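Give me structure tokens for this 306-residue protein.
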Amino acid sequence: MTHPRHSGEASKMDAIQTAMFTGLLDTCVCLVAMLAARSTLLMADFLKTFLEFLAVGFSFMAMRRIAKGSRHQFNYGLGKMENLAGLLVGLLMTLCLILIVGNSIHNLLHPGHVAGIGLWIGIGDQIVYMIVNGTLCNRSYRAATREHSPLLVSQARLLLTRTIGNAFILLSLVLSMTLQKYHWAQFIDPISSLVVAGSILMAAMGIFSTSISDLLDRTLEETDQFTILRELTRHFDDYEFLHGIRSRRSGSNVYIDILLEFDPEKRVADVQNVIDHLRCNIESNIPGSRVTIGLTTGAVSDNKAT
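Here you go.
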């Protein structure tokens, strides 16, 4: 039987590998379209698609490192690695934003009508990848919800941005081609590039906010604290005394340490049964949690107190 954690890691790797392969093909098609057309928007689309492909590549490398580390139980650093990978995605999107804005401003100052067979290649590419990116986005969001992974959340946001971008670029190219008899139509291309840049800015800000916040260790939310206390209350008659609870959130992981005192006359099998129930109930109610339950005695507790 496959362990749920291993299955989750496999689903992450599968989602990111699929995004890598489709992103590479999309980058190649965008390059051909850009070289075969005189379009600011297609150039911006190529730069955006290329940088997004690099971002997915960073995610893939991070996931491979996480997979290797998890076999050695290096749990405390893995959540931060996922957040750092998400932060790199945001940095690359910011670089993409700067390049697109600079190119758009240049073409606003020197406007011209779009032309070239690359426009038709670009239209076909936008239609195909609007469907592909939309499908991958839906898969990534489901996987992110199931695995509680900030890396997959940033990946899903990136794919959502690309899907919306595909639809908008498609509309802009069609309008630029059909309205060429109007002088003002030559501004559709660079202005559309600025709109694409704005969507990238919003996505990058969201990724920065999420990743930087999750890089900082912090206490649990009150709802999670109440969950722990509720489970301890349900087993109130199964242990003698609660000596302490320590908990913290690190990225997508939650670490909970509980120190309990049991009756010395209680059988080991009964104690283990209580511990297993507590751990199982807390981990099932707090996503991404890792529960450690330590045992102590009154004598040990008194010595610590002195």
